[in-house]
Amino acid sequence: EPIEEIVDNDISYTPPLYSYGSVNNPVPKYPKLAIRKKHQGKVIVCVDVSTNGLVSSASICNSSGSNLLDRAALKTIRYWKFEAAKKGNEFVIAKIQIPIIFSLNKS
Q: Whole-prediction pTM value?
């Protein structure tokens, strides 16, 4: 007899929240060497956010193609602070992907 998966649709889920470029979530600094070498790209950082809104782990899940840019993004995001995810009224551990774009073109 198959085991039924229990899904509680009454409990709402709110993912971790952050404000890019804020005091708690500063924009990663563009490495000077990367600027000189004209490195650009999009880094996607995978972050595990704890129940208190801090980063418990972070890794590159999609590289920009530049080690300099990847390291700059990772170094900064490790210290970000989030509004923790919630399931109903309880804070829960969550995973989130954060895109960081390094562009030499000022828009």
A: 0.84
